[in-house]
Amino acid sequence: MLFFLAFLCFTPTPSRAQGCMEPTGDERINVIGYIQAQADYRLLGQDILGNSLNTSSFYFNRVRLGATGVIPYDFSYYFLAEFSPTLGGPFVLDAFVSYRRFAPYISASIGQFKSPFGMELLTPCHKLHTINRSQVVTDLANPFRDQGFMIFGGTGDLSIFGSKAKNLFGYQLALMNGTGLNVKDDNHKKDLIGRLTFHPFEFLTVGSSYRFGKHPPKVDGIEEEDERSRLGIDLEFKYKGILLQGEFVKGTDKGSYTTGGGCGGEVIVHQGSVNRDGFFAQAAYMTPWKFQPIVRFETYDPNLSADSTDDIQNIVTYGLNYFFNDRTRVQLNYLYKAEESAKAEISNDEILLQVQIEF
User: Mapped to the 3 state alphabet, what secondary structure does 62-125 carry?
Assistant: First the structure.
């Protein structure tokens, strides 16, 4: 659960919100970034006349450029901007300063960064095993990025069960605006977000996250404050080439709620109260030939208060990743979408192809 707020990592090895490209001690500015060129084909069926409704497109999913470095002796900085026209760039994604005199036990950061909630959210976009994040994380973990203050750390290296445990316990605790990316808060209400991780073995990590916040109502004439709470539990098993991951998130919104979001995606505000939950589970295997097949099942109920289960969304993602080297990969995903409705299944499957290079 290593607690960190350097939320996009640029190391050649997969990491999660910790161990990103660390600033060197020589005060150099390190340029970081990556490009994700993507193509999609959406299987939308036919209209009543038999004409195909399928669509296809080429575009930049993400184009990110930034810098990181140190200011002697205990400070570091991290900056990352999005330039993809698909996401409406350019705009600032991450910009924060960290103080690390007492690392790894306690450090602090202030600025704009990812909310310390959940496993998949804190996995950098260029280290995701599937092209898209799960729907439950996209809807319930937002705002993905926010402005605030965070303390984080862990126990460091300990000997347990006869072997060395790296950061047996980790923590992250943040006080954030709750208003999202590049939005200044105009009131004293803030979101409190916390994450704990337990890492007893090199191959096993268990995490738990919580978020709570109140904000002024978004509709004139309503006096009761909007309220948002989130609870998440996640697990990761990683042994040699085998990777197993799962995450469950439950959310309660009073007054209003949001859908969408993600890494620069549009956040849509809806009026009304709602309870939601969902989970995903995925398995992947890295072969000796640099191919990594992966399959993920996810289910998401956008309204637990509804009388029926017709709105439950199930998605199975079949994927294949190929790594040319540590900084270049190609991903192919097929998304099979099945709605739990008594009506006929909707034609909305997708085929996604993405080529990524880091620098």
Answer: EEEEEEEEEECCCEEEEEEEECCHHHCCCEEEEEEEEECCCCCCCEEEEEEEECCCCCCCCCCH
* In-domain check, residue 78: no
Quick: pLDDT tens for 327-342.
999 999 999 998 776 5
Q: What is the C-alpha separation between 29 and 70, in angstroms, rounded?
A: 8
Tokens of 185: 């808060």
Is residue 324 situated within a structural domain? yes
> What's the confidence (pLDDT) of residue 320?
98
Residue 340 maps to which CATH number? 2.40.160.10
**Picking from 19-23, 28-32, 160-164, 282-286, which range would have the lowest pLDDT averaged per residue?**
19-23
Asked if the peptide bond before residue 285 counts as cis, ω within 30 degrees of 0, the response is: no
Determine the structural domain holding residue 202 and report its residue range. Answer: 34-62+116-144+160-169+181-358
Number of domains forming the structure of the chain: 1
pLDDT at residue 123, as a whole number? 92
Q: Please, which residues bridge with residue 259 across strands? A: 268
